[in-house]
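Quarterly update from the structural biology core.
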Amino acid sequence: MKYEKFINGLEKEHAMIEQAFKKLEPKIKNGNVSDIAYVLEILGQLKTILINHLKDEDNLFYPDMRQKAVELKQDALVPSLDVYIEDMKNVSKKVFDFFSRYDNENAISGDEKGFIKGMIEIRDSLVKRVMTEEKTLYYIYKAYHRI
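Predicted structure, tokenized:
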């Protein structure tokens, strides 16, 4: 695997996730989802990015991080990685439950307050997760692979 290209791709996807939430921010702030077609378009983009991103993290990034930590006998890091892995499963479930619930105009217009509340929750969970990964785990990954 080309480690530098891989981690740069994950970082670019993080930026795309943040951009999608910035596009939705005015809807979140005013609590009014007037242009539902636009919101669904951004949600579709976000979902596509997240499906690929989470698959790469679940199948490549975290297993590789864990394997390197074990190989290098970094015993203190392994339990922390296990916590990150488990937490990511919870975040993923919350995000995809939200996407399933609000997958059409009727679902959003019929529960605008719930939609806004759910959007805030997944935004906060994902933004927190992105910051944690980029400020800690990605640095460790880069060090492991001399990037």
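The radius of gyration is 17 Å.
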